[in-house]
Amino acid sequence: MEISRYAAFTIDPAGGNPAGVVLDARGATVAEMLQVAVEVGYSETAFLTPRADGAFDVRYFSPLGEVSFCGHATIATAVAYAEHHGPGEMLLHTSVGRVPVSTVGSLGAISATLTSVEPRSTPLADGDLAAILATLGWKQTDLDDSIRPGVAFAGAWHPVLVTKSRERLATLDYDYEALAILMGDRGWTTVNLVHQESESVFHARNPFPPGGVVEDPATGAAAAALGGYLRELCVVQPPATVTIHQGEDMGRPSLLTVDIPKTGGIRVTGTAVAIA
After folding, report:
1. HSE, side-chain direction, 13 A CA sphere, residue 175
2. Helices (H), the chain
3. Which end of the chain is more exposed for a tag (fewer CB within 10 A), N or C?
4. How crowded is residue 249: how many other Cβ atoms within 10 Å of its Cβ?
């Protein structure tokens, strides 16, 4: 397998969220893909396999196992493919459904837009909320009452907690082992910790201990899930566009653009750049 490395949701190789990309994984076994993900060492590596109908099968692996869907690795894969074959439309068959992706631009300045599967959400149980707050060292009073906590899905499940303080988000420090156990038991991918700066601007941080990673600098799947959740709670009036700043507190700034239509999947757009 030929392995590339890209940083997604940035134009700076030192920013964004790095992902491994394998554009042709035909014949690779699960064990081989997992071993590559371990060797690459990023939060996810995407493995693309061409289909006879012109679409692609894609699988995502963290260093600890397979992930149902990964937004930043999808953006990285689409940009890498466009750099080899030209921009255009792709249809990805993921384990959670079909994800159309489009790319535009020219070499060195290509952006990609994915359209998630249908988003949905469930309430966050009081006991689970208390457990998350305990691992974070947060209090109930740290939360923004205008956006209730929940668990949102647009390819993967993410608890969503909105804090009313940007400073509270900036000082993130959590009990890695305790949160990893809780998230593993619940089947959550990341915890989406969010601060709303304005009607259309959000800041986010995403702990990812189930993947063996302390934190994701950019999380496309969580951004899509958040977009669906904001629509469901009527926090935004679709069609709407919001931007999410992530990774700033890690020194890897990332920018995610989220388009929220009246119905259907959520569109997440970002750039990506090869890592030398």
Report:
1. 14
2. 30-40, 71-85, 126-136, 166-170, 176-186, 220-232
3. C
4. 17
Task: Burial-class residue 256 by CB neighbours within 10 Å (0-12, 13-18, 19+).
Answer: buried
| Residue showing tokens 């259907």 | 264
What does the angle CA 139 – CA 141 – CA 143 come to, to the nearest 5 degrees? Answer: 90
User: What DSSP line would sit under 130-152, residue for residue?
Assistant: HHHHHHHT--GGGB-TTS--EEE
User: Cβ(153)–Cβ(120) under 8 Å?
Assistant: yes
Amino acid occupying residue 190: T
How would you write the pLDDT of the chain (276 residues) with one tens digit per residue? 899 999 999 999 999 999 999 999 999 999 999 999 999 999 999 999 999 999 999 999 999 999 999 999 999 999 999 999 999 999 999 999 999 999 999 887 899 999 999 999 999 999 999 999 999 999 999 999 999 999 999 999 999 999 999 999 999 999 999 999 999 999 999 999 999 999 999 999 999 999 999 999 999 999 999 999 999 999 999 999 999 999 999 999 999 999 999 999 999 999 999 998
Q: List the helix and strand counts (H, then E) for the chain.
A: 6, 17
Q: 69: number of CA atoms within 13 Å, CB side? A: 26
Q: What would the two tokens of residue 151 be? A: 């668990």
- 37 Cβ contact partners less than 8 Å away, ≥ 6 residues apart: 20, 44, 45, 61, 62, 63
- pTM for this entry: 0.97
The answer to whether 191 and 183 have CB atoms below 8 angstroms apart is yes
Pairing of strands 254-260, 213-216: unpaired
